[in-house]
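Session log. Operator J.P. requested a structure for one protein chain; no other inputs attached. Running the standard single-chain path with C-alpha cell output.
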Amino acid sequence: MRIVITRVNGTADMIKFLVQPLATCCMRSLFAAAVNVIAAPFGTLSATEIPAVPVTAIVAHTETIDRVINGIGTVAPLQSVTVRPRVDGQVVDMPFTEGQMVEKGDVLLRLDDRELLSALASAKAKQAQDEAQLNSARADAQRYVALADKGVASAATLEQKTASSEQYAAAVQYDQAVVENAKTQLGFATVTAPLSGRTGFKQVDVGSVVSASSTTGIVTITQMDPIAVSFVAPGDRFGEIRHALVKGIAEVTLTSTDSSRTLAKGKLTTLDNAVDTATGSIHLKASFDNKAGILWPGLPVATTLTVEKRSGVVVPDKALARGRDGLYAYVVRSDATVEKRAVKTAFVTGARALVTEGIKDGEQVVMDGQSRIGDGAKVSVTPWSGSPIGELTEEARP
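Structure written below.
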C-alpha cells in the first residue's frame, strides 16, 4: 500500500485529498465485478455443451478410376494428297467445288483428249495392219511346209517363211502394248480422287494448260474420317504407355484447350521408335472417328491418355489437407466428432484421389470447414452438394 503525505491548503484541497482515493477504490471494485459477470457463463460450460462446428462432408466410395497422362496435341490427317495430272493438256471440266467432300473415284478434272484419242486410233490401226500381215505370213508358211514335204520347196525357203511369220507375230504383240499404253494415256485425261476426303482450294481453272511436271498440282484432298491426333508424352513414362497399348486400354480423350468441352474419344495407335533426346519426350499418335467433322487438321487440342485402370476408395482431392507429415483428412465418426487421419494416395485424376490408406468405403470425409476443426472436434454435418471432384454446383454457388 502506497501512502502519500501531502499538505492540505484550503477547503478545495481538502476535498480533493479525501475523494481521490475513494474514487480509485470504487473503480477497481466495479471492474472486478464486470469481469466476474462476463466470465461466469463460460466457466460453467461443460464439454457436451460446446457448440458443434458446421462442416460439409462427402461419402467415400469404391470406384474404378483411370490413371492418365495429360498433354497438348495437334489434329493431323491420316492421309493428305496433292492431286497432279499424269499427262499434259488443257482443262475442259472441273466438276467439283472447293471444300467439297469427295469419294474415292469421283471425277475432279477432265483434259482435252482429242490428241490422245487419235494416238489410240493410230495404234489400233497399226495393230490391225500387222495382224493382217501375220495371217498372210502364217498361211504362206503352211503352204511351204506342204511343198517341202513333197520336195518342191527347199528347207531354206521354208525356214525363211517361218521366220517371217514369227516376226509379224512379235510385231502384233508390240502393237498391242502400244494400244494399251495409248488407252492408259487416254485414261489419264480424266483425273479422279485417289481417296475420300475434303478438297482444298483449286490450283487451276477451266481453260488452263496443265503439265505432268507441275509441282502445285490441281487440288489437295485431306482425309477427314477417321482422323489422327499427334501429341507427346514424357519419355520416362514410356513403359506405362507401352503396357497400356499392349493391354488395349490406351484410350485418348480430346478436349478443347480451355477444357470447356470434350471433343472426341479414340485409341492410341502408334508410338515413335525413339525418345527425343533433345526434349526427353516421345511422339504418339491416336486415331478418332470424325463423322461429325468436329476435328479439323491443324486444330490444337488437349489430350488425356489412359495408362492404367484401378479400383479403390475415391474422394475429391479437395477433401485432403496437406501438413508437415503429408496428407491427412478429417473423418466423421458416429458420435458426430471427427478423427484426423493420415492418408496415402496412389494418384490423382481429374481432382479425384485414389486412396490406398486412411479412408474406408462409406466413411464421411470433411470437405469444407477443415480449418475450423481439430482432432476430436464436435461437428454439425451437412452433406456435400457439389460435384464429385469438389466443385460447387450452380445451385450451391453464392
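Operator note: The longest strand covers residues 300-316.
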